[in-house]
Amino acid sequence: MSTAVRPTVLVVDDETSILDSVRILLKTEGFTPHVAHGGRAGLEALATMRPDIVVSDVRMPGVDGLQLLAAAHAQDPTLPVVLMTAQATLQSAIQAVNDGAFYYLQKPFRNDELVAIVRRAAETRTLRVENQRLTQEIKRRDRTGVVPPAGAARAWREALRMAETVAPTDSTVLVTGESGTGKEVVARWIHEQSARTDATFASINCGALPESLLESELFGHTKGSFTGAVKDKQGLFQAAGGGTFFLDEIGETTPATQVKLLRVLQQREVIPVGATEPVPIDVRLVAATNRDLEEEVRRGTFRGDLYYRLNVIAIHLPPLRERRDDIPLLADSFLRRAAQLRGEEAKTLAPGALDEMVAYQWPGNVRELENAMERAVILTPGDVIPATALPEKITARKVEPLVAERTPASPTLEAIERAYVTWVLQNEGGNKSRAAEVLGIDPSTLYRKLARYGVEA
């Protein structure tokens, strides 16, 4: 609704006296009335304003009330339309109701009768809009699987807040984080929150295909461009036209593919394999990687110009061990989803099982947690999941100390680096941002080093 306190009412009639009396009545009763003299003026008003309720005469020259009703519902199916007429018949009333009129009011009417109907229409409008909002929210969550920000860990809330901020734009987004942290979930969240939500969401894992096949899938190819190319094929950049294209593990691409991706971002066009003419594209790009691309650029294994084109908006997803507050929320979500798929009541975790899960390091992150919950549901005959239903590696974990008491006689370079990094982290009180500054590395690089060391901060 345009306003929850004073609902806006568009009154349409070809009699000035009716317009004046209804406008004064509704304004006195706490509404915000706007009047239109005749059906054509009513159509023009609908095109320029978004009323909460329409009150219209049926019989008007040019555009009648039923035509106005159809136009109003074409614009907004939740908009209540009250029709008035001095020549009511059973047939016209039936037609109006069948066409979706909220109420069919016969002239002359009592003032309190009209006010009561408009108030009821306002309440109905509020309920319809709220129901539509909740339905869309539920559908979005079902599609994305994203745990809503309220009540989630701070780091996850911040990532989602950034995603929601950038979603309405067409800016390129780079999502970083370890495997299984939910990079594609966030990419879908961005797509669902954007103006492109009704178009295609396409995705591809750049590390899953050899270079030749990856280029064909991304950019398409022409007939005869290589052995087996028996016909022209449209690439995913074209297939996702108007929508969002998610490039997962973009750090796995070869230098040759990186050059072509740079052209896509700079020129907004692709050249299919075997073709000579570029094809324009309209697609929003979201890329993801579990690598430290800044480090890859320094090493010369990833193009710097492509990195800076991709890194317009950066969203870092911390590993699950850095957002332990999310573990109970995610576990509950996965348990409810598993129950829904099996047509059963949702199971709950015993306190001991939840304690084990919160203490576990989750090297596979959210994906590992989801698999563990599915396994637990299958293995548990009752309603409460005990710790024994969890994978053994969760309950029989071994926590390494931050710094080993004894070092090898001839320590490796990695062992020295590990000791130094963890010593700095310890000196900074476990604050990873400050530790990264002291070490002169990006925080995401520090996260990956700690994960590789298998240490617990």
TrEMBL record:
GO BP annotations, alphabetical order: phosphorelay signal transduction system; regulation of DNA-templated transcription
Protein name in the entry: Sigma-54-dependent Fis family transcriptional regulator
PANTHER family in the cross-refs: TRANSCRIPTIONAL REGULATORY PROTEIN (PTHR32071)
Response regulatory domain residues: 8-122
Keyword Phosphoprotein included in the entry's annotation: yes
Transcription is among the record's keywords: yes
Compartment(s) of residence: Cytoplasm
Residue stretches making up the Sigma-54 factor interaction domain: 149-378
Main location: cytoplasm
Listed Gene3D superfamilies: 1.10.8.60, 3.40.50.2300, Homeodomain-like, P-loop containing nucleotide triphosphate hydrolases
Positions of modified residues (4-aspartylphosphate): 57
GO molecular function: ATP binding; sequence-specific DNA binding
Keywords, in A-Z order: Activator, ATP-binding, Cytoplasm, DNA-binding, Nucleotide-binding, Phosphoprotein, Transcription, Transcription regulation, Two-component regulatory system
Pfam families: AAA_lid_14, HTH_8, Response_reg, Sigma54_activat
Any one annotated GO CC term: cytoplasm
